[in-house]
Structures are given as C-alpha cells and as structure tokens.
Amino acid sequence: MDWFMGIDIGSGTSKGVIIKDGKLKAYHLLPSEANYRAVAQKLSEELLAKLGLSPQDITSTTATGYGAGSVPFSNQQVADIRCCARGINSLFPSVRTVIDVQEMSSQVIRLDEKGQVTNFVVSEKCAAGSGRFLKIIANVLRIDLNDIGPLSLKSNNPITFTTGCAVFGESEAISRVSEGISKEDILAGVHKALANKLSALIGRVGLEEKCAISGGGGLNVGLIKSVEEKLGVQLLVPPQPQLVTALGAAIMAQEKERLVASI
Amino acid sequence: MTKVVILDSDEEIRARVVGPTGAEHRRLANKVMEEALKQANLPFDEISYVIATGYGRINVPFADRQITELTCHARGVVSLFPNVRIAIDIGGQDAKGLKIRNGKLIDFVMNDRCAAGTGRFLEVIAAALGLKLEELGEISLKSTNKVKISSTCTIFAQQEVVSRISVGTPLEDIVAGLHDAIASRVVKMVRRLKIEPDVVFTGGVAKNVGVVYAMKENLGCEVFVPEEPLLSGAIGAAILGKELTLEALAKGETIQKKERLLEEVTFFG
Fold first, then answer.
1. pTM of the model
2. CB A49: neighbour CB atoms within 10 A?
C-alpha cells in the first residue's frame, strides 16, 4: 500500500498522477470543462487502469487546483501554490523561484530548500496576465496553441501591444493582420507582453535564482525565451511542466502518510 | 463612431449624423460630412469653421483645426448642462471622468488600458449571450436580484456569465449585475476627482438605461443624460469653432481655413 495520487483540477486542464516511493508511475491529462467532479472521477479511473490498480490500492489522494473541492474521493485538499512548490522542489531541489503560468492565472512562488513556500504573488484579475491571452491571439491567427511558441521564434520584429488588455489586444492583433504584419511578429509580441506582466509580478516578490517555469506556459518555447530575455536569467523547464502541481500534490499525500505513521 | 454636428450662429443644431468609424471607415470622414451637409441643406462653402476631435481627429483632411476630445467634450457638456461639475463619458474604447468648475475643465481621469469599465465590456458579453447591445438596458430593468460579477477582467466575466446561464440564473439578474460591474468600476475611478453634483453621463453607454440606473445607485446622486449622449463632443467642437471664428472677427483677423473639399484621406496608402 504505497501508491499515492495527486489530482490537480485546473482552470483549463486537469491533471492526475500516481507516484510510488516519490517516483512518477502514471499520469493523465483531461480538459477541465464544466463538470469538475466527472473530470476528477475520469482521471482517477484512467490512472488506475494504466497501472492495473483498484481504488483501494491508493493509500491517499491529495486534490488541488481551481476545482480541488470537486474531488469527492480525495483525502485532503492542499492549495496549488504549496503543491507547485513541493513538486518543483522534487524535480529541481536548487530552485528558489517558480513562475507558474496557467490558463486563468499566473503565480510566482518563492520557496526554500525543503520546497516550503516562503512568499508568493498571484495574478488572477486579468486575462492578459495568464495563458488565456496567448490562447486568444492564437485563435485570432488560427494557429494551434502548440505551434505558437516555435513560430514566434522566427520573428525579427515583434509588435508592441499598446494597452496590456487581452480584449483590446485581440482587436490590435486583428488590425495588425489586416495591415499585413506577419503572424510570427504578432506572436512574438504577445509573448513579450505576457513576459512583461510576469516580470512585473516577479518584481513584487523578488527573483531568487534558480528560477523555473511550470504550468501550461512551460510548454511554450516562445514564452520561455521572452521571459528569459526580460529577466536575464535562464529558466529551468521540467519535462512535463503541466504536471508539477499534481506531482507535488501526490508527494504531499505521501509525506502526510509518513508523518502520521511516525507518530 | 464618427459624429458630425453642424451648428448655426445661435448654436441651434442644423445637422447631426452618427456613422461607424471602424478600420475601413476611418478614411470616410468625408462621407459622414457629406450626409450632414445634405441634412442641413447647406453647401460646404457656407461652413465657417470645421473642428475635428476624437481619436481620429487627424484623419479629417478638411478640418480647419484639431482640438482634443477632452476640451471639446467639456465644452459640449457645459453648453447642455451649465451646472455640471462632473462629466462621465463611457464609450466603446475608453471611459473618462471630467472635473469642471465654472464651465472650465480643471482635471480628468481616464481608462483606455483595460476593456473592463468601457463599453467594450458590454459588447463582448452581449455577444456571448447572443444579445444586442440595445436590448441590455430594458432586460436589466426586470431584475429583482442582480448577481455580483466577481471577475474584473472582461474575458473572465464573460466566462463567469456563461456559467451563470448554465446553472439557470435569470438573464435579467445577470445583465443587471453586468451594468453594476461597469458602473461601479467607472465610479471608483471618477471618485479620484471628488464627485460633486451635477453629474452628467455621456457616451454610447449612456444610452443604456440599465447603466444609467446603476450609475445613479453607485454615485448616490442624480445623473443627467443628454438627449443624444453620443454627440456632446461634436457639439462642443462646433461651439469652439464658432467661438474661435467670433474671436477672430472681433480682433479683425482673418481666420485660416482649409479648402472646402470632400475627399478621401489618402495618407493611409
């Protein structure tokens, strides 16, 4: 009985992992859509099926993320900030700052050598400060979200968005397209705009190296490059940045169990 | 929108035209002008002075002079409501608060950086709900229990509203909540000017009775809305044009005028 599950119901994508002895054994991702309970259930079923396990084999499950309250089979809920910090610490023990870029929010987390959160700041008021801005512009340009990063790297002359608002930004992108500006330059511009917002966010908690990126934003090479240029640091990128928080959740389930066992 | 007002020497409105601006129309100030001249039944040569204002004021090749929208707007509002002390204008792209004392603009606040708190907020969400902008006001008046919209961002509010619909919240309560959201956001900004009556509310959003009602509620005082809330800037521009002409006449100077030609702007290439 040493399997642990982490379920991260995000605003865009839901992620689940199963670990054993702190090692990732299975993961699964699904779009969150409207019914968080159904998504959580489905994630659990898929994960268990991948390992040929039954629900009873899981010692403990931690739910986290936007819809953490909608995971009826979880043993505990932990804030995603803490899970993200714990997850990144397990992957990169030397990291002291994480930039977590999600669909509907971004957060910058400072953590210590044990993976404990020492400070954090969240941007959730404005779509232009989250992955949503990239999605909106990708949509205007009719380019798959997965392709915008690589495409933007071909730009020589990124456009500047004038307002810092995703709604006005959408109109600006449409105007630039009609003026014949290349998609590469528009995409490089939106990555720069988001990098500027993230940089302002980092300014509020301070940047301590080493710095990592997590969340869906960590899949985007264009965003990574823009953030690195803006901050003048190199970012550590996990192999599966979207899974960091779910991984941290599973690790916290395991650590809690050990703590209980040791009493 | 592009608006044209033609005033006579008694400041009576002889023509008023509202046409779209848009990306394709921005070179078409001449078309709107042509329509206004037709309405007033005047040849262009009869127009003593033309003032252009607004975002696109440089795109009017036949204008004799350009004046900022803040100045024109203040002048227009004062002519309509001489006791105005605070003028609030909410348009499709921005929201402004003007502090006016003794008919003069002395301070202002403005948001043109974020769609929330501008008419765009309502445009985006009305589209998501499949409603026309003009319908919103009337729908909201039926509300008995307006919802609190928790998102500030237009994009997130749109999502919030759609999920409200899916759980069966009455449409009128949602729309009333949206009106309150935009009003409270703008009033919060304008409070930096210290609000004192009379308060005048203009711009395209002032045509929405639901927002007018929400503005009254948020301000805690009466709000005056001109009959044509879109035209106050253009009226102000026309009045300033008349004043400049009379001033020049009084000094015996000749006023510089452009040739009265109605041609498309060509500098866009």
1. 0.86
2. 12
